[in-house]
Amino acid sequence: MNLFVTGTDTGVGKTHTVVQLLRLLRASGLRCAGMKPICCGDRQDAQLLLAAGSEGLTIDEINPIWLKTPAAPLAAALVEQVDIDLKRILNAMVDLAGRFDCVLVEGVGGWLVPIRADYFVSDLAKQMNLPVLVVAQNRLGCLNHSVLTIRSVREHGLKCVGLVMNNPPAQKEIAVSTNIDILRRIIDVPVICGLTEKMAELPTDWADLINLA
After folding, report:
1. What is the number of H-type helices and E-type strands within the chain?
2. Model-level pTM?
3. Which neighbouring-strand residues pair with 34?
4. How buried is 146 (Cβ within 10 angstroms: 0-12 exposed, 13-18 middle, 19+ buried)?
5. Of the candidates 103, 105, 123, the residue with the CA atom closest to the CA atom of residue 113
């Protein structure tokens, strides 16, 4: 099972979700790798994925493109006057897929963040031809963002395997308490309330997802 993990926005918990899923996959006996094709700014996300995945990898293998500017890839590339090497990214994915049972690819920012002027995160997922897991933050506005992202995933001809809802700390707004129920009424993919490190507490949908590997 290889999977592309995208977000409805930046800062919604994609890395946390991938780290937890990597730990669960490893606990089930699978060799797995997390991949962060592009980092902008620091490499903290890639370092967390490297630590959570199976041994035998370097950070450059899982993060082939590192732009130092903390901005969208297109903006960072323009600032640094470089071209983002898409072939390098795709070759890195092929290499990982040949060495591991599972590769979890974490996108940068949201689904339609530009990598080039005519090439978006969605296009990268399409070229990799991977099923997509969408991650959202449970907050006001996430209904619209979640539905738009899921629809766009399908419009790109890809399967959306689920929506992970990460809860912000100490939020008691009415939207936060009702979003999950509303989403389950209006979309036809599994809505998962975050992830746990304990296999025994893994929701059925996640157990099914792991069994696809």
Report:
1. 9, 10
2. 0.91
3. 104
4. buried
5. 123
CA distance 62 to 93: 8
CA angle in degrees (0–180, nearest 5) for 9-14-15: 135
- Structural domain span for residue 171: 2-211
**DSSP structure string for 50-117:** HHHS-SS--HHHH--EEESSSS-HHHHHHHHT----HHHHHHHHHHHHHH-SEEEEEEEEETT-EEET
How many structural domains is the chain composed of? 1
* CATH code of the domain covering residue 157: 3.40.50.300
**Alpha-carbon distances of 116 from 67, 84, 198, rounded to whole Å:** 13, 8, 39
Nearest to 8 by CA among 128, 140, 142, 114: 142
Which residues are the active-site residues?
36
Per-residue pLDDT for the chain (213 aa), expressed as one digit of tens each? 799 999 999 999 999 999 999 998 898 899 999 999 999 999 999 999 999 999 999 999 999 999 999 999 999 999 999 999 999 999 999 999 999 999 999 999 999 999 999 999 999 999 999 999 999 999 999 999 999 999 999 999 999 999 999 886 666 788 888 999 999 999 999 998 876 544 444 444 555 555 543
- CA–CA distance, 153 with 160 (Å, rounded to integer): 7
Look at residue 128 and give its three-state secondary structure.
helix
